[in-house]
């Protein structure tokens, strides 16, 4: 809920008398910092734009293979129109709840609890992110064993699957490497470790959160458009929470890197919500491009350029007016409007809005709540589950789980 607030926090600090960037948690008062140089600001915001584009681009590519995957541990979460409609309400309640928590309870203890929570999540997300890349570095004769972590509830025909995670020895190595970054972040809260976790969260979000159609994407982006504008322009809740929230829910880059090096502490920031929310819509358009079977990625590249335009406009307006700007105010119209104009020009509006991403996902990744008791290897378990699916008497359509 506060992921979209970091850009607003940075704007609020940049508009101070000292002209300094946001530096929450650094221990140095904003007014005591010298103004950011034009070179430092250009480097910081240019780096933020580049870091925002990387998880969207690669997350969208990985979402295609994720949609076709038969591995239940990589099964995407499908966002329906009902989920999209209630998401701004849930996000608003969460944001207001965090605001009240920070007002009532000690900020130190809350952030300690959040740090431990994101420490575990960050390690898992980073491990999943680097796993495909690390596989190239393992030798061919590496002893790679397969494992499956399966937790169930009940017995017999009423058995329900709680956790079903498949992994191998290579995944354990990636987990160990990610744990090093996790300890570094927990002990130092260094901005590089923060960014590694933030990039991993963003890429995993774009890869694993799937919109089922374009209409759902418009509902989600439209609702969060109103949410972002209200909580930034209407109240100080979002900026207050963003200043108090010490967790890798934002990408940061120092504006004084040229002067202080890696120990710089005058940060410009971009919330992960401003990356993941438009990113899952861009990933949907990539899958729509592939469904057209025209060997072109017109809608994907159009939305990608639209995102760059919207984010650049956000930074420009924030710099000119020295006031907090909700990034989704500019990103949502750009990411929806640009592809829609292309669809109108090509006469493919009907195809765009009739495309159902879930129709391609569900046959490959059925969501079972009941399955037989099977002894033996994970392969035999998968074969038995497949046989259960092929039986007409047992087949029934399951609604995707809520986000």
Explain how this protein is built:
With 403 residues, this protein is mostly helical. The chain has a domain at 2-9 and 36-114 and 211-360. Helix content is 62%, strand content 8%. The chain is built from 15 helices and 6 strands. A two-stranded parallel sheet has the order 1-4. It has a two-stranded antiparallel ribbon with strand order 2-3. Strands 5-6 form a two-stranded antiparallel sheet. Strand 2 (146-153) and strand 3 (160-168) form a beta hairpin. It is globular, with a radius of gyration of 22 Å. The protein starts with 5 loop residues before the first helix and ends in a 13-residue tail after the last helix. One of its GO terms (biological process) is membrane protein proteolysis.
């Amino acid at each position: 809920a506060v992921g979209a607030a970091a850009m607003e926090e940075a704007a609020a600090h940049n508009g101070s008398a000292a002209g300094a960037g946001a530096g929450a948690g650094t221990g140095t008062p904003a007014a005591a910092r010298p103004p950011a140089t034009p070179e430092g600001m250009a480097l910081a915001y240019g780096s933020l734009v580049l870091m925002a584009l990387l998880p969207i681009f690669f997350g969208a590519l990985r979402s295609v293979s994720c949609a076709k995957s038969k591995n239940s541990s990589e099964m995407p979460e499908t966002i329906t129109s009902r989920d999209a409609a209630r998401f701004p309400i849930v996000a608003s309640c969460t944001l207001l709840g965090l605001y009240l928590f920070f007002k009532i309870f000690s900020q130190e203890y809350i952030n300690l609890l959040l740090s431990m929570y994101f420490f575990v999540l960050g390690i898992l997300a980073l491990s999943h992110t680097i796993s495909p890349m690390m596989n190239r570095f393992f030798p061919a004769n590496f002893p790679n064993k397969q494992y499956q972590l399966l937790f169930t509830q009940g017995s017999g025909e009423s058995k329900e699957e709680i956790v079903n995670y498949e992994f191998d020895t290579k995944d354990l190595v990636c987990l160990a490497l990610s744990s090093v970054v996790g300890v570094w972040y927990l002990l130092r809260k260094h901005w590089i470790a923060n960014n590694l976790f933030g990039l991993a969260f963003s890429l995993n979000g774009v890869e694993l959160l799937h919109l089922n159609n374009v209409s759902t994407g418009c509902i989600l982006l439209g609702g969060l458009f109103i949410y972002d504008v209200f909580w930034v322009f209407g109240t100080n809740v979002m900026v207050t929470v963003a200043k108090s929230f010490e967790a890798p829910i934002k990408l940061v880059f120092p504006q004084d890197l040229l002067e202080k090096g890696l120990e710089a502490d005058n940060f410009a920031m971009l919330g992960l919500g401003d990356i993941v929310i438009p990113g899952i819509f861009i990933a949907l358009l990539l899958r729509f491009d592939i469904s057209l079977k025209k060997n072109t990625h017109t809608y994907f590249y159009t939305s990608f350029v639209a995102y760059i335009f919207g984010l650049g406009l956000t930074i420009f307006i924030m710099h000119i007016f020295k006031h907090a700007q909700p990034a989704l105010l500019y990103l949502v119209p750009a990411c929806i409007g640009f592809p829609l104009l292309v669809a109108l020009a090509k006469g493919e509006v009907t195809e765009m809005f009739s495309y159902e991403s879930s129709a391609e996902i569900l046959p490959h990744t059925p969501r079972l709540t009941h399955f037989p008791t099977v002894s033996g290897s994970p392969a035999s378990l998968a074969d038995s589950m497949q046989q259960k699916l092929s039986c007409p008497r047992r087949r029934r359509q399951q609604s995707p789980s809520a986000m």
